[in-house]
Amino acid sequence: MTNAAHEQAPVETESVVMPEPTIAPLVLALGLTVAATGVAFGVTFAIVGGVLIAVGLGLWVGHLLPGKGHVHEALVAPEFRPTLIRPRLGTVTELYPGMPGYRFRLPEKVHPISAGVKGGIVGGLLMPIPAFAYGILSGHGIWYPINLLSGMVLPGLGDLRVSQLEAFRLDLFLMSSVIHVVISLSVGLIYGVLMPTLPTIPKPLAWAGLLMPMLWTSVMYFTLGVVNPLLSLRVDWPWFIASQFLFGMVVAVVVHWASRRHAFVAGVIGGLVGGLLMPLPAFVWAWLTHRTIWYPANLLAAMSHPAMRTMTSQELQAFRTDWLLSAITIHLVMTILFGLIYGALLPRLPRIPGPLAWGGLVLPLVWTGMSYGLMGIVNPLLQARVDWPGFVVSQFLFGVVAAIVVLRSEMVHIAPAGRGPEADEAAATEWVTE
Questions:
Q1: Is 74 left (phi over 0), alpha (psi -120 to 50) or beta?
Q2: Where is 392: in which H helix or E strand?
Q3: What is the SS3 assignment for 312?
Q4: Using one digit for the tens of pLDDT, what is the confidence trace for 34-51?
Q5: DSSP letters along 142-175, please?
Q6: In the chain, what are the domain boundaries?
Q7: Which of 3, 21, 43, 183 is 20 to 30 Å from 167 by CA-CA measure?
């Protein structure tokens, strides 16, 4: 049947013309994605992507031709069709400016720009304190962290000797001051804009998924650094932190889901489930660093085998049944213990305000992760010289202070959109007259 005959064919009145389902957009999208990957993986991907693009376009164009791409969908039975809605006068209240619901804009209340500026200034003033403390305690002096900050703009700074980075240099001081002021004000303004728009973080997730893993990681870092500095150097702390956050979030979700059970039962269940998933970041880290999966397990077993702490990395990659059993025992005991603690504490802890949880916990964590990853690509030598525990403390100090300042500032209402019913009616009358 030709297209003209198809168009003139009688159509049943009890049907409606609908677009015919097609896979053409998915094929075209897949082709574009595969062709783009050809830039990184070679010409083969680009050729396959080009073929998929041609097929997707062909299918799509075919559905756009006259008489194609449509089907006649039968209507439902008359008793299931919607009935006619009859209007009734006097049932709708006219809205005026200032009334709730009159062309309102979300969010209805925001912090003024000055709140973000104040938060950035106060947080920026307190933020260098951990860096200066680190410089003094490490013997490098206060100019060492200041000079390292200028390395964000001056890539050749990583080639300087430590003694040169410990000395005062006016150019590096001015550059660091500019960087610090710009970042503090920018992040402060972001806090002022984002705080009213961010949702509230559930209490179990804020405590068990964010705050407690940070506290536990800090305790482990400083304790292990004093008890066994050699073992502390072998632990990859970013992946260790990822494991703690994964465990905390899983426990928070499980404890909240099992809230009807006894607190200790819910804690044990959460600890076991979190303990099963917790080693995943460690195994991924071992695979990415070309080590065996036994290496992170043996590092954990070294807590109960003092002789293992002096072994080389090659020796710790070997498999031994006693080491694996020790690691499993330590892991099982600690996960159940922390699960019990979480189950007992989470129902009794106060709620962390949403802005404080986001500004003091989530955003500093995201910013620290971005800084660590980008610096490892742009300047790995400088990344190795930065004292990351002190850097992390500085970020969280800034986040908490800036969030408190913004949170305590008075919020302003957003004016409703439009000029009011009178102005709108006058504009419509003027348009009709013209």
A1: beta
A2: helix 388-408
A3: coil
A4: 888 887 777 888 888 889
A5: THHHHHHHGGGT-GGGGGS-HHHHHS--HHHHHH
A6: 10-80, 109-413
A7: 183
